[in-house]
Design brief:
Largest sheet: 7 strands, parallel
Order of helices and strands: HHHHEHEEHEHEHEHEHHHH
Shape: globular
Strand order of the largest sheet: 3-2-4-1-5-6-7
Structural class: alpha/beta
Radius of gyration: 22 Å
Oligomer: single chain
Distance between the termini: 47 Å
Length: 334
């Protein structure tokens, strides 16, 4: 599923680029047409009015891909590690989708870094689809459209979907709610162990990857992480995060990362945790959609007089803000 299309006529390719024919786009995406996949993700990102149709058409294919999240501070080598993981997964015969979330341009809203440029090794591989997505100011290291984009890649037949976050800080750990397995990348000499303690990253990491392990301080970083894991509270049978060393730029340690992901997948299935995580993910999706609809309705009330009237009453002390909110919600429900 690279950007090259070998068997799609030029006229059909042009129609796919502009099409809003959801059944046709889903059918072509299922057949491996990368332009149909790209068009569906574009409809998702833009919040097009056909988005409910897209979601309905993709629903039968939900849960068919393994979703792996990669997160960590800027400069730890997330893109290089993702690139090498794609290579390892393709060697196993898996179809792979990559969603690389990049910072947004404050001027155009587009993705600044363009991770696809840094993964050109797989550009002509029809078994790989790579998409850079702009975060568009969304906090948490992801884009608001990421969950639905994952569904598009599942529908397109990807066996594994890798989600690489924006370089994150202490509290941006949203990827853990999206992924089946979350990899937290660290690097020696960047203070990552201390950041992990402050951020609570210990709770979201299923696998720690100490990348650039040929640098001085790698052993100390591994010991710090293992020490924090030992201090964590776990019940009998709970997952103990794995710590893996890697030098991704040389392709070293990638098989160990893949093995740790496999081990975690086995644990998830054995303890029924995979089902629980995916149900929690679906609940978060439903809640986000419902809140979006609610915000849109509240926005429509701003064009009327009800919200203005309630605001004036709150400002003059005639009514408290909670009572005003109750009245506003009553208006939304009517």
């Amino acid at each position: 599923m690279s950007d090259a299309v070998d068997h799609v006529p030029a006229a059909a390719t042009g129609s796919v680029r502009r099409s809003r024919d959801v059944p046709m786009l889903v059918e072509r995406a299922r057949a491996g047409d990368p332009r149909a996949v790209a068009r569906l993700i574009t409809l998702v990102e833009s919040g097009d009015e056909v988005l409910p149709q897209v979601a309905a058409a993709l629903a039968p294919y939900a849960g068919q891909a393994q979703v792996v999240g990669l997160t960590g501070s800027p400069g730890v080598g997330k893109s290089t590690t993702t690139n090498e993981l794609v290579r390892a997964l393709r060697a196993r015969g898996h179809r792979v989708g990559v969603l690389a979330i990049d910072p947004s341009s404050p001027f155009t809203g587009g993705a600044i870094l363009g991770d696809r440029v840094r993964m050109q090794d797989h550009a002509t591989d029809p078994g790989v689809y790579i998409r850079s997505m702009s975060s568009r100011g969304h906090l948490g290291g992801l884009s608001a459209a990421t969950p639905q984009a994952v569904r598009v890649l599942e529908g397109a037949g990807c066996d594994v979907v890798l989600v690489e976050t924006v370089g994150v800080g202490q509290a941006e750990v949203e990827v853990a709610s999206l992924a089946d397995t979350t990899l937290v990348l660290l690097a020696p000499g960047m203070g990552d162990a201390i950041q992990a303690v402050k951020a609570g990253i210990l709770e979201i990491a299923d696998v720690f990857v100490v990348n650039k392990a040929d640098r001085d301080g790698a052993d100390a970083t591994v010991r710090d992480i293992q020490g924090m894991i030992a201090l964590g509270e776990r019940g009998p049978g709970d997952w103990r995060p794995q710590v893996v060393r890697a030098i991704a730029v040389r392709g070293e340690g990638i098989d160990d990362i893949a093995a740790a992901i496999d081990k975690h997948r086995g644990w998830l299935e054995q303890h029924d945790e995979l089902r629980r995580r995916r149900e929690a993910r679906a609940a978060a999706e439903v809640e986000a959609i419902a809140l979006g609809v609610l915000r849109a309705r509240i926005g429509s009330l701003r064009d009327g007089t009800e919200l203005t009237t309630l605001a004036a009453k709150v400002a003059e002390g005639a009514i408290d803000p909670y009572a005003a909110a109750d009245e506003l919600l009553a208006q939304l429900g009517s």
